[in-house]
Amino acid sequence: MQCLATELCEQLPGREATDAELLRVHSPGLIAAVAALSTAGTAAELALIKGYLGEELLGSCGTHAAARVAAGTAAEVAGRVAKGEAAHAFAVIRPAGAYWHY
After folding, report:
1. 87 located within any domain
2. Using CA atoms in the order 55, 56, 60, 66, what is the torsion angle rounded to 10 degrees?
3. Measured at the alpha carbon of residue 35, what is the angle toward residues 43 and 94, in degrees to the nearest 5?
4. Block means of pLDDT (10 residues each) for the chain, length 102 residues?
5. For the stretch 42-68, what's the b/e string if a residue is b when 16 or more beta carbons lie within 10 angstroms of its beta carbon?
6. Which residues contact 56 (CB under 8 A, 6 or more apart)?
7. Which pTM does this prediction carry?
8. Is position 33 within any domain?
9. Which of 45, 49, 74, 90 is in the most buried spot, having the most CB atoms within 10 Å?
10. Is the residue at 77 inside a domain?
11. What is the domain range of residue 70?
């Protein structure tokens, strides 16, 4: 059985968001907190970060890289539609980022 999506859709590699792209929609503090989450070495450091991002936060050493690739990939596909290079776009990416909209 073949997947119709692979026949009709162009698959693009993901890419990291640039600092400029992130700063268009996120505060410098939020970007720094997500980056710090990936390098937190003690419970005290993690508590400080969670104080900024929220107690419900789940993350790991790969969270910062995953968030940057998700944001960059979303920016890429949106940019292609905005430039008329694609009529439609659909990006299957993680993390969703719905909780980080300060």
Report:
1. no
2. -120
3. 105
4. 66 90 91 81 73 70 86 92 89 62 42
5. eeeeeeebbeebeeebebeeebbebbb
6. 99
7. 0.75
8. yes
9. 49
10. yes
11. 16-82
